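Morning!

This is the sequence you dropped in the shared folder:
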Amino acid sequence: MKHILVVDDEKHICELYRSELEDEGYAVTIAHSGIEALEKVESDPPDLVVLDIQMPGMDGIETLEKLLGRDKGIPVILNTAYSHYKDDFTTWGADAYVVKSSDTTVLKQEIKRLLGDES
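The structure's back. Tokens below.
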């Protein structure tokens, strides 16, 4: 079973993604901050990270840089409500960029693509 780490300070987004991704057969761990995400990656490395950008404290871009500095092998999907970040070169280290939506179809497609689970 593939393990996904969802990092978002919005609890309702975390619960929506947990429910949707567990229905797809993934094990899901939640972190509500960049610091918590880095601790979880260190203790139990996931197969993929879904990472919000706008978070208090350490934002998603700084978290992405630290993740890439530790392990370039873990795919990261930046997931944000702000589409303009896609043009920001600091986000280019991510493997995919998905604009947040209550419709998780695109997010699930990107997860499947990055984990090689496409049918």
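Headline: The helical segments are 11-23, 34-43, 60-70, 105-115.

More detail when I'm at my desk.
O.
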